Structures are given as C-alpha cells and as structure tokens.
Amino acid sequence: MSIVLGYDESPGARRALGLAIDLAAKLDEELVLVYGAAPPGVVGEEAGEHGKALAEIGRTALAHAVTAADAAGVATVVEVVAEKPVPALLAAGDRHEARVIVVGTYGESPLRGAFLGSVAYKLLHLSTRPVLCVPAEPE
Question: How far separated are the first and last CA of the chain, in Å rounded?
C-alpha cells in the first residue's frame, strides 16, 4: 500500500505535502508523488514542446517534494505523467494500491469547483479510494 500525493507546489499542495509525509511516516507507507499535466489543446510540434516544458516543471516540483520526504525518512516514488491530474492520480492510486489520495485545494467555492472542474472536486466524485483534500494555510 501507499499514500499518493498530487503535487504542483501550489500553497494547498505544499501543505498537503507536509500532511502526506506525516501520514506516510506514521503508517510506514511509501509516498507516491504525482505530477500530472497534459498540454491544453495544442497539437503537432507545439504539443511536444509544451509537454517537455510541463514535464520539466513537474520534475522540479517533485524534486523539492522528494527532498522534504527524504528529510523525514519517507521513501518516495516519483511519477511525472503526461495526463490531466485527475486521471493521473486515479491511475497512480490503482497502480500503487493507495490507502488514500492526498491533494491540496485552492479554496474555491463548491459551485466554482464544480463549474471549473477542480482536481479535488473531481477526485471526490470519481475515486473509489479515500481522498484527503488539504486547504492552503489561512492567510
């Protein structure tokens, strides 16, 4: 089993990272760090370049998360996936038999999240695994 974390260095994701590391340490589970991003609506050569740029951003973000997990003695697996975040997280949850999928939130209202399709909102409705939504630190 594992703990799967969707991570993008947003304020909610940074707070979720701390919680996911604590949870993985307490449960002695592997922490699977997932960055899922697909180029939005671009095709051809532009899609390839955009995909490479997104993958590099993801690798950088996840490297920061690995550093934090290593400092806490938590084993990690890193996945940079060329998919939208929700399918990437759902698939990682299945592959790694996730005990829980952890994501940060942006503080959107339920209506805005439903209309715009927030990752947390979609995961709560599509996942067969528990989903832990972590808000950013209050300002």
Answer: 35
Instruction: Name which of 42, 45, 31 is nearest 3 in CA terms.
Output: 31
Q: Per residue in 130-139, pLDDT tens? A: 999 998 888 7
pTM of the complete model: 0.87
Beta bridge partners of residue 36, listed in sequence order: 81
Question: Three-state SS across the chain?
Answer: CEEEEECCCCHHHHHHHHHHHHHHHHHCCEEEEEEECCCCCCCHHHHHHHHHHHHHHHHHHHHHHHHHHHHCCCCEEEEEECCCHHHHHHHHHHHCCEEEEEEEECCCCHHHHHHHCCHHHHHHHHCCCCEEEEECCCC
**Cβ 96 vs Cβ 2: under 8 Å:** yes
Token couple for 89: 């997280």
What's the rounded Cα separation, in Å, for the pair 24 and 78?
A: 15
pLDDT at 49: 76
Domains of the chain: 2-135 (3.40.50.620)
